[in-house]
Design goal:
This protein has 6 helices and 17 strands. By secondary structure, it is of the alpha+beta class. The chain is elongated, with a radius of gyration of 23 Å. The structure holds uracil (URA).
Length: 236
């Protein structure tokens, strides 16, 4: 994984295309500011969200951004697709730049999707060790039995990946409807788990990721920014 942090001198020479001696002059002359403070240390580490200004020109002003979106069916969880609309297409053009998805949903799955430009945050969300549970509501073709609860809790062997799924919780809400909580996200995981019982998933809706619950005022296709509290409390 490449580091998202760069030394200030490397950052400046890449952005300004200037010689080393001019770089030293810039720094010694107090002409570079990082997050509002004059910075003279060429070895200072610059992260993706540090604000860097040189001679009054903003070289980097990236702010971390975090959005939740209520994904409709028939939309691809990707930033580009040649055949179908993507979740990014649901945002106004001026909101799209630099965003990526923090966890996908299948084409016909619906519900909570998170978008951000903060790679550290999305990486933490996806790491199973962080135990961020995702809550799904599922409807099925055939009636459920208590055997499903046991099988989900024990984990299932996935031949293709060569892994046993982590313990998952399943609560039967009615004969054809269940809630499922997963703390990992294998390819088509829920469909494959119900597939073991030869039971087809008819609808799959994500209600929550960690502590963050899909805002019920968001209609399918609508989005909103997360509050600072929501961004930090998702892991708690
Ligand atoms: N599991 C699936 O099978 N599909 C999803 O979209 C999410 C989890």
């Amino acid at each position: 994984m490449t580091s998202r942090y760069h030394r200030l001198d490397r950052f400046l020479s890449a952005r300004l295309q200037i010689s080393r001696s001019n770089l030293r002059l810039l720094l010694a002359g107090g002409r570079v500011q990082v997050n509002g403070q004059v910075e003279g240390d060429r070895q200072r580490r610059i992260g993706p969200f540090d604000r860097v200004v040189c001679d009054g020109e903003i070289l980097q002003a990236n702010r971390p951004r975090y959005l939740m979106l209520n994904k409709p069916a028939a939309v691809v969880s990707a930033t580009r697709d040649d055949h179908h609309p993507t979740v990014l297409d649901l945002l106004p053009e001026d909101q799209r730049e630099g965003l990526h998805l923090a966890g996908r949903l299948d084409f016909n799955s619906t519900g909570l999707v998170l978008l951000t430009n903060d790679g550290d945050w999305s990486r933490q969300l996806s790491q199973p060790e962080n135990q961020v549970r995702k809550h799904y509501r599922v409807t099925l073709e055939k009636p459920l039995t208590d055997d499903y609860v046991t099988a989900f809790a024990e984990g299932m062997w996935f031949e293709y990946e060569g892994i046993t799924t982590r313990p998952a919780a399943l609560k039967i809400r009615s004969p054809f409807e269940a809630d499922v909580w997963l703390c990992e996200g294998r390819y088509h995981q829920i469909k494959r788990m119900f597939g073991r019982f030869d039971n087809k998933v008819l609808t799959l809706h994500r209600l929550a990721i960690g502590k963050l619950v899909l805002d019920e005022t968001l209609q399918p296709g609508e989005w909103r920014a997360l509050s600072a509290l929501e961004v930090s409390s998702i892991f708690s």
